[in-house]
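>> received
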Amino acid sequence: MTASVQPGGPNRNTVEGGAPNPWSVLVLTSLPIFAVSLDTTVLYVAFRDLQRTFRSVSAVELSWVLNAYTIVFGALLVTAGRLADRVGRKRTFLWGAAIFTLASALCGLAPSAGLLIGARVLQAVGAAMLMPTSLALILAAFPREKRPMAISIWGAVGALAAAVGPAVGSAIVQSVGWRWTFYLNLPIGIFALLRARTRIAESAEAAQGRLPDALGVALAIASPALLALGIIEARAWGPASFKTVATLGGSMVLLAILIVEASRSSAPVIDLTLFRDRNYRLANWASLVFSIAFSGMFFGLILFMTQVWGYSILATGLSMTPGPLSVIGFAIIAGRVATKRGHRGLLLVGGIAFAMAALLLLLFVTERPAFLLLFLPTAILFGMGVGFVLPSLSSVAAHGLPADRFALGVAVNQAIRQVGSMLGVAFVVALVARASAGTVLPFRGVFTLLVVGGLLTGLLGSLVRTAPLRSGEKAVEL
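>> returned
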């Protein structure tokens, strides 16, 4: 089926106030994404400071400051995407920015780990409203032939946050404490709210549908929650214990029920028809695999540098900066290449580069710090892999989306990424939570996970078939 699409046009989208300036939309919608990405990377650096604040809480329990956010974020993304397509992407975006900003303030004020986790859940609600609407507004504003570059810039904004996050966050943690890392989001969120109200046009689907059913939403929350719990606690419970098997098995059963529910429901939480597109299926499988590797890399390297090499929080943040900073340049290159040649080569090369970086660490890293000779080159290789892969996966996932399903299609892809991110953190915690300080051996399991993740991503990417987009092309193949 072929649907004629005018980006941002009235065929399936109602636009108030005329077509917005695409670049203005890109800037304003990317700012909150900068805050979301900044918050994630800063919190990785602040994890040890959180442990010192909440001394009675174990590292495994405290990891739910990360995991609770990821679970709720991933579970609500699809619902938020469906809501945005129905009631308005701009409206949902503004509400998301307001909730995320308020929740960031509450996180900074939290007096206990329990209240911090609760505030993080609220923060995840806002982030779940921001992520799909941000990219959906960009997709609607730009013509198809310019979308790969716009998506690459959008991805580079997140990379910039990842680049400055460890350095800025570690400096703040070391000087005034982890609470101020959350306060970094406040000026960004407030500015985006004030400007976006008048600079972004509203858009929504013409034929409004029902919101996702409550049972599907509950299943989408419970299944990944049990999966993360089983992975994290497997070492304490025992890999073959009844608790571990029951928790992991229960997660799989709930996932199966979720898929059946989605196939039968008139308003499913996951729209399975999106997966009829081959490229969309491949992009989502690759997103799951690469998100596990990416979050495992970021969290694992921070723990490695502080626990094995004995770096301070500030030194760790500064040392982590070159890798994410290099992502920006590679992401822009990826956008230009994808416009002319498609995404397959970028995904293949990016996956291999990521795997090679992890392999270098696996083979040559020791307890003795070797930043210039080993860590810096591998950080650049990681940056190349991430810069080529992440924006390419977003472009491939968005390649065949009809205009009135922009937010929903993006939300499904982002939800799958968040499940992968949760699993990556859970794997790292399970592998190294009880590791002795100064010991490399447990981290070799982390590096092996990254090698496998990079190679699988490259393999899946090699199967993608996206033709270069030509100027003036308006048809979307479904």
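>> Residues 213-268 form one domain.
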